[in-house]
Amino acid sequence: MRRRATLTDDLAKSAPRAKVPIVPPRIERGQTIGICAPAGPVKPEKLKAGLARLGDAFRLHLAPSLTAPRESGVPSYLAASDDTRVAELNAMLAAPDVRAIVLARGGYGLMRILPRLDASLLRRDPKPIVGFSDATALLAWAHANGVRGIHGPMIAQLADLPDGDVGALIAMLTDPLARARFEVTAHGSGVHRGPLIAGNLTLASMLVGTTSSAPRRVTPNGMPSFCSSPPISCMTWSVRPDGLGTATRSSSTRWT
Length: 256
Known about the structure:
Rossmann fold, alpha/beta, 9 strands, seven-stranded mixed sheet
């Protein structure tokens, strides 16, 4: 399935959920985007090839752990220690010259660090965050703090995507008139109307009951959602009572 660019209780004490999250300002070509891996590790060849697909559209600021020797004692499924990943992501949020953040890869690990992210940095200087899969947790965290993100491809996928999909990501970041692009395979019947929320169904389920839970109840009957994580059947029940609509699988390029 192709991905296209198109978005714990500790968080609630400092960041009440915004009713209408903003779309952060588009960035200009030539400005700096930050690349970090707050979840799983990315292979060096995938990182290099993905960065090359962005061409000269942006200046690139890489988190140090992406190219540094691997820390000892860090599980193989994490890009770096929790402390390092928190520090690097907070640094990207705080850096005034970093105008957008594109994740290098998904995998696993963002749920571990959400409570330690500084939401005040994002609220003070809203910037787009791009990712999917495990990044659903980060996109939901940003949405809960009043800033919409982009559910779209990460650096590790860019080398395998056609030019049009890479161009869609660049356009979504830079062009205020860029239209969301998505393909949907729906499961179920009926007509659902409302804002569309893209995300990984497994992560959406895990976030239920936290202050970073997936956006919900925007309309009287909740809202339709795009979900990208099989198996659908074993996860739908735990999400739908919280307001999400019929489960779907999709590939999307959109703000969320």
